Amino acid sequence: EGQQTTAAVAGHEHSDFRYTLNRSKLSQEQRKFYEENGFLVIRNLVVDYVESFTGPNIKAIHTMLINKPPDPGKKSSRHPLHQDLHYFPFRPAEKIVCSWTAMQKVNRQNGCLVVLPGTHKGKLLRHDYPEWQGGVNHMYHGVKDFDPNAKMVHLEMDVGDTVFFHPLLIHGSGMNRTDGFRKSISCHYASGDCYVEDVTGTSQDVIVDEVLELVMKRTGIPKGQISFGTIWKYKSRDVKGRSGWDTK
Question: Which Enzyme Commission number(s) are listed (predicted)?
Answer without folding.
Answer: 1.14.11.18
